[in-house]
Amino acid sequence: MIYRNCDSANSLCQIIYIFWVDFRWEMQPFDSADETLQREVFLNEKHENILLKRERLLKHAESFLDGQEQFQVTLNSHWQQAKKRNKGLLEDFKHYQSVFKERVEKPYSRNFVTLKEQYWSMVERELPGWKAEVKNSRRETPSPR
Predict the structure, then answer these.
(1) What CA–CA distance (Å, rounded) separates 93 from 99?
(2) Distant-in-sequence contacts of 121-126, Cβ < 8 A, 24+ apart
(3) What are the pLDDT digits (tens) for 118-137?
(4) Which of 54, 76, 102, 139 has its CA 20 to 30 A from that of 26?
(5) pLDDT in tens, 75-123
(6) φ/ψ of residue 21, rounded to 5
């Protein structure tokens, strides 16, 4: 039998088998009404199976298309939200870029310059004392080596 050599999942093999069975039926002479009835029953069962497979495929295709449609709607919604977010981010970036440009071009205030000078003069006064403290702390603590 041809069907035994086919993999059951292989639909092409199944189709060939069905045609082979049909051909075999057609090639045999019908001697009696009983054989004709058997052929009619066989063909009706095959027809019902084909209709059931068609209905299952149509339902599957319909659910697949509904899923695809929902996916497209969701994707479009997310795309619009991302465009709106990106546009807002670009506007914020341009705004802060202009604000920082103004601050860089603007001279420092008198208070800031005075504070900066005081800080560096304090660092210069305290630096020798800090260095001495670091040297003393190194002598007192043993090295890890």
Answers:
(1) 10
(2) none
(3) 999 999 999 999 999 998 88
(4) 54
(5) 999 999 999 999 999 999 999 999 998 888 888 889 989 999 999 999 9
(6) -65, -45
